[in-house]
Amino acid sequence: MEYVLQTDALTKVYGGVKVVNEVGMHVEKGSIYGFIGKNGAGKTTFMRMAAGLAAPTSGSVTLFGSGEPERQRMRIGTLIENPGVFGGMTARENLEIVRRSLGIPEKKRIDGLLELTGLSGAGRKKVKNFSMGMKQRLGIAIAMLRSPDFLILDEPINGLDPTGIMEIRDLLVTLNREKGITILISSHILGELSKVATHYGVIRDGVLIEEFGAAELALRCRRCHKLVVDNAELAAGVLEEKLDIHSYDIPQEGVLRVFERLSDTSGTNRILMENGVELRESYLAGQDLEGYFMELLGKQKA
Amino acid sequence: MLCLLSAEAYKLGKSKSFYICMASMVSVVFLMYGMFVIADRIERGELENGTGGVVITQDGERMESGGGSIWEQVGIMEMLSQIFSGDLVACMTSIFISIFVIGEHTSGMVKNIVGKGNARGVIFLSKLLVTEAGVIIMVTVSVAATLLAGRMFIGDCAFAGDFRENFLAYTGVQYLNVIALTAVFVLTGELTRNLAAGISLGIGVAVLPVLILTGLDMALGESSISLSRYWMVSRSGSCPLEGITSGYAVETALIAGIWLIAATALGMWHFYRADIR
Amino acid sequence: MEAWYLGAAILAFAWAGILSARLCCYRKQIRHLRRELEMIEETGTGLGLTSVCGIGETEEIICAVNRILEKNRETQELLRRENRSYRESIAGISHDIRTPLTSAKGYMQMIRSEKVTDEKRKDYAGIVERRLDDLTGLLDQLFLYTRIESGELSLEIERLNANNLFAETLSLFYEDFLEKGCEPEVFLEQEPCYIRADRQAFVRIIENLIRNALVHGTGGYAFSLRRSGQNIVLSVSNRTDSIEEGDIGRIFERFYTTDVSRSRRTTGLGLAIVKKFAEQMGGEAAARLADGLFTIEVRFWCV
User: Fold this and answer.
1) Phi and psi dihedrals of C67, rounded to 5?
2) How many pairs of residues across A and C have Cβ atoms under 8 Å apart?
3) Cβ(A136)–Cβ(A157) under 8 Å?
4) In this predicted model, what pLDDT tens digit does every residue of A23-63 receive, in sequence order?
5) Could you tell me which residues come within 8 angstroms of residue C147 by beta carbon, excluding any fewer than 6 positions away?
6) Three-state DSSP class for C212?
7) What number is the ipTM of this complex?
8) Rounded distance between C-alpha atoms, residue B233 and residue B244, angstroms
9) What are the φ/ψ torsions at residue C97 (nearest 5 degrees)?
10) Which residues pair with A282 in a beta bridge?
11) Residue B58 dihedral angles phi and psi, to the nearest 5°
């Protein structure tokens, strides 16, 4: 698999505290990677290290599979923490500064980007009079200026109204699908994230707890009848033979997830027990995404 | 590098603090001339001292009309020395530099430029170069204003004698001091990266060392060591108006060069090493 | 005279200086472009070329090359997407063919075994037949879809009485709804609605929509054919627990099914065909989900 961003035991220590603790993240080429964590979990610090704004205390960052991240960094567009813009200037002037400093000869790109991010109406309005959402859009426009291969966006939909969120979401999906741009995006609005992300990484107290794909997430969040039994093979046999249930799986030893007969779980349980399966636990599991993430984020350290 | 310079120049062109600092320097120049014009008219007995509430004192005493023109004692060179050896240039440039350099960090614009293919050292260097250019423009405009006002208020006689040689030598030496001082201010801005702290530190650097060094010089009066010889602000205050020798000029260039290189190197090292917030 | 020579010499030097500075700029720019082009070749990055000196004519060239690169990138992306969807299609088709085939084979083995009673044997044969019917249906859909896709299928647009066709087609599914144990709500306009459509395509649209509702629905079936301005709107809605907000945008894609394990024997072609047909007849198809009620609306033009 080709990774756009790969980190190995990336660690950042601020004042003796490991803000980012041995994070090994893998962002696949062409994916939209949703980076989830509470405030202060280390998302921004991680992104700053990936973007080359902060130096890691230890560990390494590999970009585009190349050993020399500095040279590859020009392929990244970033919007981290807040859009870096001068309040006393207009959106166009701010873009002009970045266009000049990156040596992009196309002056028309600025018009295109203002159009794309819905800022062309802002005209001579100074950035300090912009709403939070407009500033965020300007930040995205700046990140897009040098048609990057990889976008790192830290809370890009922060402060946007619902229509704004939808527009940015559509924009990101279009960029991803039509230009093949890989996107790493952090957000605390999980519902929004889950509409675009193809992969997820969950960070808690600086530790990357889990990485998984969208299909895996869908499976994890599917409503199911969860059974903890002494003998999973026997239980599986009973399910197939006696109950004609074929849609189930065994995520770990002794645990079964049954996706059928959810309306009659007690019946399922009774038949299992009549056939010699010892039930330790039986409950209806599977929640909405928000609930699932909350569970992940709130989990106590093992 | 050229791209970065062009972007920095664009920023300078759009920077309000640049124009405001320049305008205030020019207006201070005209204010000083205005004061001397009043003093001149009192001196010549055309105006009663205290007219319009303005009282001019000289060496603690109320100035009286003395018949002659004040312009016999005060010429353009004296006005120039008011600009350079007073804290005017140091304070104004320190404010402008702090706003220009630190604005980059407080706005976060620097995030859009660092890590995008340009080495950090080059980024710092182009910022420094354009700041230098901005300061030189500011100072040149004030010098030009001084000349223009001199022509207006004093007349052609202000340019008589060996004015040209003195003027060129004096401003040349002062430019060297300003260039080195600018690098120091860029360094303080880079180290603080905070507007309030940067401006206070900048003005502190402009004003305090002069006093401290003068005190030290007096304390060390017995020996022939004079520390204030090695600090640009002190040097620009003590720079002679006339008869600058080539030895003095070379000494100034050397000291300014050392400060410039040291400040630049330290600034680059800090910019290279420090995380960007 | 001397002053004149001096002036000329200074001018000449200045000119030479400017020229050599320009030459340096050009060389630097050329080296820079070479490095960038090498990087593009090496990594396939989508970055455009950049200018280092801001010389007008080189900037024009850079812009021109960038336009080509941009086009190139878009074509590549398109190709990559097509390629992926093609691979997904193949995988989808194999899966959809294998499932009924495997099942049919299993029952064939049982029929051959000696222990089974004649009665059971008949039952099994029935099941095998149904599996084969499923397969035929799938192949029909696939064939049809390929033909629409490739533009081979030409529609014969004529004036159709939509009410009659709709009612006729709906009645064919009467038993299926009985089996599900619920009566669908049906609404038809009083006066006949004439639309411009191909007869077969129109019937196919209705069939596919009903089948889709039967597979994914959990009740609350409602079918209607209403007049709305210059359009006739065919609407099918049902309650569902297997479709989510995020699926709505992709529901008309070929081989898209909301069923992760693909256990409900859906092909993901039905709605794709609905959309293709609707569009070819100048109409459109849209889906929405509100409070667990899933609705598909297809618009046709009135005559």
Assistant:
1) -65, -40
2) 62
3) yes
4) 999 999 889 999 988 888 889 999 999 998 888 999 999 99
5) C153
6) helix
7) 0.82
8) 17
9) -80, -35
10) A227
11) -135, 120
The C-alpha atoms of residue B148 and residue B145 are separated, in whole angstroms, by 5
Cβ atoms within 10 A of the Cβ of C133, count?
11
Q: Tokens standing for C26?
A: 């050009």
CB C201 within 8 A of CB C259: no
Can you tell me the distance from the alpha carbon of B64 to that of B58, in angstroms, rounded to the nearest whole number? 9
Amino acid at B7: A
Question: What is the number of other CB atoms lying within 10 angstroms of the CB of residue B172?
Answer: 13
Domain encompassing residue A199: 3-212
CATH of the domain at A93: 3.40.50.300
Q: Using a CB–CB cutoff of 8 Å, tell me whether C51 touches chain A.
A: yes
The string of DSSP codes covering C194-253 is EEEE-HHHHHHHHHHHHHHHHHHB-S--EEEEEEETTEEEEEEEEEBSS--GGGGGGTTS
Which helix H or strand E contains C235, and what residues bound it? strand C231-239
> How far apart (Å, rounded) are the C-alpha atoms in residues A33 and A197?
6
CA distance C50 to chain A (A): 5
Beta strands A32-36 and A182-186 are: parallel
User: Do A189 and A89 fall within a single domain?
Assistant: yes
Residues in C closer than 8 angstroms to A194, CB to CB, are 246
Give yes or no for residue B128 having a pLDDT over 80: yes
- Please tell me the distance from the alpha carbon of residue C227 to that of residue C235, in angstroms, as a whole number: 11
Chains touching B (3+ CB pairs < 8 Å): A, C
- B117 has pLDDT over 90: no
**What is the CATH architecture assignment of C158-301?**
2-Layer Sandwich (3.30)
A126 in B contact zone (CB under 8 Å):
no
| A200 bridge partner residues | A34, A212
With CB atoms and an 8 Å threshold, state whether B2 touches C50: no
- Length of chain A, please? 302
pLDDT tens per residue across span C99-135: 677 767 777 877 887 777 888 788 878 878 887 887 8
Q: Are residues A195 and A248 in the same domain?
A: no
Q: Can you list the alpha helix ranges (DSSP code H) found in chain B?
A: 2-14, 16-43, 76-85, 88-107, 120-153, 163-192, 195-219, 232-238, 246-273
- Please state the domain count of chain A: 2
Q: Which two tokens stand for residue B171?
A: 């401003």
* Together in a domain, A174 and A280: no
Class of domain C90-150: mainly alpha
